[in-house]
């Protein structure tokens, strides 16, 4: 007799706080029904959230594992499940399963490295988990540079946390950019790939990148021009997922399943895989 | 080895069905399928079922959980995995091998408990082939259709059914049956398999060469051109295992179920902002790359096809894995 709960069966969890970050991104705080953090995770891992009758979708966990009280998800409104999430109020229950995927090698390959984070738009969500983990264990890593771009100032996710915390810490250099000039913006204007090239970073850094595929492709080309190798660059991929267990057959890039073998890949691993993402 | 008179096969089925549910290949509404045996149901004369035996382990539609939603609260009750033992009789060697391929996916950690329960509850009784179809090519995949495996292997010769237990479960099944006699089956004639047109296909090349060479082959454009994206090939295939998870509002709650899906469908990888396989060429390529290259790469060289020939018989445009494999090896646009 098999009494193990199937990995497709979620647990019930509760949203305790909702923060509007940008016009189309909200950050949801999630705890178990016992009020505690529902699972442990590695930065870069994901979890399935669902509302029965609406659907289930995979989101990266935005909070750092060092946060002991709750999980956070920064979610952009762009489909069925996300539209529902954007309409709910605190106290709403939903279902949760996970964590899924490999996560970033924060306790191995990243140790002692100078880190360069590059994010576009909602791509900051998975990186925020790593950045806050690195800030927590600051002495384990070298310098930290963060290049972050969005359409406008209003579209920068976690703008307040960036200004009041990240920007003020020693050894952390934040480089923000927006696509078009704005009257109340004195920072850089331009697309992320170009900005990265202008900043001409030291090629000894380990790069952690997340954003739309087009941004990844152009930024990678720029980094290679600067002299970075692909094996220094990590990114996460997002494809349609149903099971997150490597079984429903949906999320593969070549012979790798993004849900199970990813979502984090080192870009030299991708050269032997099809461009299907 | 045990024997049973074929003229009283019905009595054998009745003896098995007296203790547990029994499925046999039978004609239902004119189609050979695995059906629950009841008195009077006879075995089909067809060599194999139109739909494969995977239905019994990975049904086309299967409940996962039921949810109740009230105000802001949600509760879950998981569906029960199968608890009763059953016997599936008359599985051909190709379909029996397909269970190994499904196992390598569904039983990999974390195991799919619904599939696992069915596998544990099942006793698989296979049946050797003696009159293959021209579309059969299991021998090209290292399968011996005259030594079909499973928990019990069976052979039919003249007026006798020969039964050989291969596992403890098989032993237990045979021990539970009355009136089995001892006997030895006559040597089978395998010459008919040597004459099959597709007996000499070589699939070993695909996991040998770099994945990207096959992926970038010029043949995909031409081969996929007339594919209708109907998904028939994936539904009849015993090794195709892709599924979707969906919710259905019953009016008294929400039923979450999984159902077969097909990589041949345009919405298979569709997301809010588009799909990474925009044309039938990419979807077609995915199906065959998965069987010939990706699956073997991930599972110690095991090809994701068992040579059952169903896709050769059912595809409305006569496209199939044999044509694809041959074209890939030729490499001509
Ligand atoms: S690919 Fe075709 S021949 Fe091979 S197992 Fe599937 S249906 Fe049978
Ligand atoms: S290959 Fe044939 S059976 Fe498969 S989807 Fe295309 S047309 Fe349908
Ligand atoms: S989401 Fe099902 S295989 Fe990756």
Describe it for me?
- Chain A is α/β, with parallel strands linked by helices and 277 residues long.
- Helices cover 19% and strands 30% of the residues of chain A.
- Chain A has a seven-stranded mixed beta sheet with strand order 10-9-8-7-11-12-15, with helices on both faces.
- The termini of chain A are far apart.
- Chain B is an alpha+beta fold.
- Chain B has helices spanning 9-17, 93-106, 113-121, 168-175, 191-194, 205-208, 211-215, 219-224, 232-236, 280-298, 310-314, 321-330, and strands at 2-5, 21-28, 31-36, 61-70, 73-78, 86-91, 122-127, 152-157, 160-165, 181-182, 243-249, 254-260.
- The longest helix of chain B has 19 residues, at 280-298.
- The chains are: A alpha/beta (277), B alpha+beta (333).
- One iron/sulfur cluster (SF4) binds at residues 227-233, 264, 315-317, 319 of chain B.
Task: Kindly list the characteristics that best describe this protein.
heterodimer; A: 277 residues; alpha/beta; Elongation Factor Tu (Ef-tu), domain 3; Rossmann fold; 7-stranded mixed sheet; 6-stranded antiparallel sheet; 6 helices; B: 333 residues; alpha+beta; 2 domains; 8-stranded mixed sheet; 12 helices; 12 strands; 22% strand; binds iron/sulfur cluster; binds FE2/S2 (inorganic) cluster
The proportion of residues in beta strands of chain B is 15-25%
Arrangement of strands in the largest sheet of chain A: 10-9-8-7-11-12-15
Which chains make the largest contact?
A-B, 46 and 57 residues
Largest sheet data of chain B: 8 strands, mixed
Q: Any idea how many domains of chain B?
A: 2
Poorly predicted runs of chain A are none
Low-confidence runs of chain B (pLDDT<50, min 5 residues)?
none
Tell me the span between the first and last alpha carbons of chain A: 41 Å
Number of DSSP helical runs of chain B:
12
The arrangement of helices and strands of chain B along the chain is EHEEEEEHHEEEHEHHHHHEEHHH
Could you say which structural class the secondary elements and strand pairing of chain B correspond to? Answer: alpha+beta
CATH class of the largest domain in chain A: Alpha Beta
Number of strands of chain A: 15
Classify the helix fraction of chain A into a percent range. 10-25%
Bound molecules: iron/sulfur cluster, FE2/S2 (inorganic) cluster
Choose one word for the global shape of chain A.
globular
């Amino acid at each position: 007799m098999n009494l193990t709960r199937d990995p497709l069966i979620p647990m019930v969890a509760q949203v305790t706080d909702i923060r509007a970050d940008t016009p189309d991104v909200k950050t949801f705080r999630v705890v178990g029904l016992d009020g505690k953090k529902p699972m442990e995770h590695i930065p870069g891992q994901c979890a399935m959230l669902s509302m029965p009758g609406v659907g289930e979708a995979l989101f990266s966990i935005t909070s750092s594992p060092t946060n002991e009280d709750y999980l956070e998800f920064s979610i952009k409104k762009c489909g069925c499940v996300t539209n529902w999430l954007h309409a709910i109020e605190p106290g709403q229950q939903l279902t949760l399963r996970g964590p899924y995927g490999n996560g970033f090698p924060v306790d191995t390959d990243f140790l002692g490295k100078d880190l360069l984070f590059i994010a576009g738009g909602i791509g900051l969500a998975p990186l925020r988990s790593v950045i806050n983990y690195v800030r927590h264990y600051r002495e384990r890593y070298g310098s930290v540079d963060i290049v972050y771009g969005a359409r406008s100032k209003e579209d920068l996710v976690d703008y307040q946390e960036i200004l009041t915390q990240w920007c003020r810490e020693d050894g952390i250099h934040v480089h923000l950019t927006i696509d078009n000039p704005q009257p109340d913006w004195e920072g850089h204007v331009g697309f992320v790939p170009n900005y990265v090239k202008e900043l001409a970073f030291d090629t000894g850094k380990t790069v952690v990148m997340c954003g739309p595929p087009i941004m990844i492709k152009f930024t990678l080309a720029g980094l290679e021009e600067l002299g970075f190798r692909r094996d220094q660059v990590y990114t996460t991929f997002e494809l349609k997922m149903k099971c997150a267990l490597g079984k429903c057959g949906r999320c593969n890039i070549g012979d790798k399943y993004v849900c199970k073998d990813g979502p984090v890949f080192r870009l030299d691993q991708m050269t032997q895989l099809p461009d299907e993402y | 080895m045990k024997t049973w008179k074929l003229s009283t096969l019905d009595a054998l089925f009745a003896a098995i069905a007296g203790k547990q549910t029994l499925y046999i290949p039978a004609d239902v509404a004119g189609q050979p399928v695995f059906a629950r045996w009841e008195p009077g149901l006879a075995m089909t004369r067809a060599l194999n079922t139109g739909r494969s035996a995977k239905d019994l382990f990975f049904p086309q539609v299967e409940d996962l959980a039921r949810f109740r939603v009230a105000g802001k609260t949600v509760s879950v009750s998981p569906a029960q995995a199968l608890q009763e033992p059953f016997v599936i009789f008359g599985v051909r060697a190709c379909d029996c091998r397909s269970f190994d391929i499904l196992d390598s996916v569904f039983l990999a950690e974390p195991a799919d408990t619904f599939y696992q329960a069915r596998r544990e509850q099942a006793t698989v009784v296979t049946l050797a082939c003696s009159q293959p179809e021209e579309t059969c090519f299991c021998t090209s995949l290292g399968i011996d259709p005259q030594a079909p495996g499973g928990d019990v292997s069976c052979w039919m010769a003249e007026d006798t059914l020969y039964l050989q237990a291969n596992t403890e479960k098989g032993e237990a099944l045979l021990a539970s049956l009355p009136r089995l006699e001892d006997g030895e089956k006559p040597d089978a004639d395998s010459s008919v398999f040597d004459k099959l047109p597709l007996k000499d296909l070589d699939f070993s090349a695909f996991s040998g060469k770099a994945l990207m060479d096959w992926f970038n082959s010029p043949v995909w454009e031409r081969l996929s051109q007339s594919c209708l994206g109907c998904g028939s090939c994936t539904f009849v295939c015993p090794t195709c295992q892709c599924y979707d998870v969906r919710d259905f509002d019953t009016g008294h709650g929400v039923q979450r179920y999984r159902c077969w899906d097909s990589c041949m469908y345009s919405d298979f990888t569709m997301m809010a902002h588009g799909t990474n396989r925009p044309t039938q060429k990419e979807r077609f390529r995915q199906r065959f790359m998965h069987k010939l290259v990706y699956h073997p790469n991930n599972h110690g060289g095991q090809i994701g096809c068992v040579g059952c020939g169903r896709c050769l018989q059912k595809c409305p445009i006569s496209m199939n894995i044999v044509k694809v494999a041959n074209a890939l090896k030729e490499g001509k646009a």
